[in-house]
Amino acid sequence: MLLDPQLLLAYLIACVVLILAPGPDMLFVLGQTLAGGARRGWAALMGIYLGATGHIALSVCGIAALLAASPLLFDAVRIAGAAYLLWLGISALRTALRPGGAMTLAAGAADMRAAFWQGALTNLLNPKVALFFMAFLPQFVAPDRAPAWLQVLLLGPLLPLLALPFYAVLITLADRVVSRLERARRWMDGIAGAIFLTLGLRLLLPR
User: Fold this and answer.
1) Are the C-beta atoms of 184 and 107 separated by less than 8 Å?
2) Of 3, 24, 36, 134, which is the most buried if we count CB atoms within 10 A?
3) What is the C-alpha separation between 28 and 23, in angstroms, rounded?
4) Helix (H) or strand (E) holding 85
5) Which tens digits make up the pLDDT trace of 61-76?
6) How far apart are CA 65 and CA 94, in angstroms?
7) Helix (DSSP H) and strand (DSSP E) numbers for the chain
8) Measured at the alpha carbon of residue 203, what is the angle toward residues 201 and 204, in degrees to the nearest 5?
9) What is the separation of C-alpha 107 from the centre of its chain, rounded to a whole number of angstroms?
């Protein structure tokens, strides 16, 4: 067996704990769902999964280690990601404050594409996600089992796969809230904008 059974079980338990803890990805998907309904929320989630796939690939290639070793590169990526999130937040707030400018609940193809790429970019431009995969995954690698890169490649996708049912429930519940508050869609845009701004400011804060 390529993976150590005990380490695999420990990794799965740790993944469940991480999934249940509120984080930037959860807030981003929630904000997109509130702004445009379930289809937009799913598009955002698929974009985040694309970004996570990129981070896993970077971890396998060792580029995440380079990011950790270069504070300047880390800060550059962090500031770029924060600026992008702040831009999303300001745009959503401007939509909410513009008379008659609230988003419709029926997300069109353009809205879904935008949510998808926004999710991918916000995930890829978050260097803390790359450092998470670099620092978290190796703890569950057994050097005597198989090459480390292969074990990381096998373990990495398990986290987003385990998170899928949780996000399905989150998107469904958020979409029901939006449908019941259709008259308050401008408030939903405002809430989404506030979430994006909070994520951007949080990314700017050093940890």
Assistant:
1) no
2) 36
3) 9
4) helix 71-97
5) 876 666 667 777 767 7
6) 39
7) 10, 0
8) 65
9) 20
What gap in Å lies between CA 53 and CA 47, rounded to an integer?
A: 10
Q: How far is CA 167 from the centre of its chain?
A: 11
d(CA 107, CA 48): 18
Distances (CA, A) of 157 to 3, 26, 50, 172, 190: 14, 17, 11, 23, 33
CB 141 within 8 A of CB 7: yes
The residue among 94, 71, 95, 91 whose CA lies nearest residue 83 is 91
- Percent of the chain at pLDDT > 70 equals 82
CA angle 118, 21, 124 (to 5 degrees): 25
